[in-house]
Amino acid sequence: MSDAVDQRFAPPQALVADVASEGMVLAGRGTRLLAAIVDALIAGGVAWAALKVPLLDSLAFNAGSPGLGSWRAGSTLLGLGVFLLVQGWPLLARGQTLGKMLLQIRIVRCDGSKPEAWRLLGLRYGIGIATNLNPVVAMVYGLIDSLLIFRESRQCLHDTIADTKVIKL
């Protein structure tokens, strides 16, 4: 009888196992870094070309030197526009930026499925872009984000937030 009483008040038992990601090989840290560098060079080239248009140049870079903690709306909006123009379609269609395509790696959910648009553009990239509202916050976020890739899971902070990982094709 005492066993029956103990069983009634025992906490529920459930087996929690990680979703198997068989057949998926994580992309290397160096490969991910190189893909990010390629993406930055592409975005920088497009932004440079856009700044040759006088109207965009005057919107992006206001006169004066406002200080470290200030935000320049024009340059942030230009950067967001360049990112969406260049990387938006490949990200949504294939889970890859142009740099990731070149290096044959892809963003997937932790269970191996294709990430949704809100997860990619909102959580994975949007939060990082939003930190640019304040350069000090952006520096702290960027440092933490970058250093977390050295975990065993090779997930940066933006991967953890969006429940994604980067795999080799």
TrEMBL record:
The answer on whether this UniProt entry bears the keyword Cell membrane reads yes
Q: Which InterPro entries match?
A: Pra-immunoreactive, RDD
Pfam families for the chain: RDD
| Bilayer-crossing regions | 33-51, 71-92
What UniProt keywords are attached to this protein's entry? Cell membrane, Membrane, Transmembrane, Transmembrane helix
Mostly located where? membrane
* Record bears the keyword Transmembrane helix: yes
Q: How is this protein positioned relative to the membrane? A: Multi-pass membrane protein
- The protein's superkingdom reads Bacteria
UniProt subcellular location: Cell membrane
Q: Which residues form the RDD domain?
A: 27-162
Q: Which protein, by its recorded name, is this?
A: RDD family protein
- Species the sequence originates in: Pelomonas dachongensis
